[in-house]
Amino acid sequence: MRAVVLQDGISYRDLAEMMQERGVEVDPSTIFRWVQRYAPELEKRVRRYQGHRPGSWRVDETYVRVGGKWKYLFRAGDKHGQLIDFMLSDRRNTKAAYRFLRKALRTMSDYPPSSITTAKLASYPKAIQRLQKEGLLSKKVEHRTSKLFE
């Protein structure tokens, strides 16, 4: 039996072949469905054991095609590039920015940000102020803008 070394880019077909070598017959599409069904729950349960996360968030958005339709992909990451959260939206406005930041704050409730760096989209300051006014985000959180996101 050979050692299994998981790496970036391993396909579901590769996984199915590795399982077949061990006597388990499974179709790659079944593995894909398992990932779709169980990965979010596993990620949610493991997140609390990943240790301290930096308090500095980087937030941006981009326009992507999903299922043949154009959507805005909002995403937040920490200063080390680890994904905090993401959200797809039809619009790139204050309401969408607020929904996304509220979602990210819920996801990282144990590790709230000390600073949030965004592009110069006017929606972010309004969304951050609303979250602070509602008590969902500390008033001490510093909002920064960066040209690197433009």
| Uncertain ranges | 1-7
Helix content: 25-40%
Look at the structure and give the CATH class of the largest domain: Alpha Beta
Q: What is the H/E string?
A: HHEEEHEHE
User: If you average the pLDDT, what whole number results?
Assistant: 85
Q: What strand order characterises the main sheet?
A: 3-2-1-4-5
Strand fraction equals 15-25%
Query: Terminal Cα separation, in Å?
Result: 50 Å
**Structural class designation:** alpha/beta
Anisotropy-based shape: elongated
CATH fold node name of the largest domain: Nucleotidyltransferase, domain 5
Q: Which CATH architecture of the largest domain is right? A: 2-Layer Sandwich
Characterise this structure.
Strands 3-2-1-4-5 form a 5-stranded mixed sheet, with helices on one face. The chain is elongated, with a radius of gyration of 19 Å. The protein is built from 4 helices and 5 strands; from the N terminus they run H-H-E-E-E-H-E-H-E. Helix 1 (12-21) packs across helix 2 (28-47) and helix 3 crosses helix 4. 37% of the residues lie in helices and 24% in strands. With 150 residues, the chain is an alpha/beta fold. It has helices at 12-21, 28-47, 94-107, 123-133; strands spanning 56-66, 69-78, 83-89, 115-118, 142-145. The longest helix has 20 residues, at 28-47.
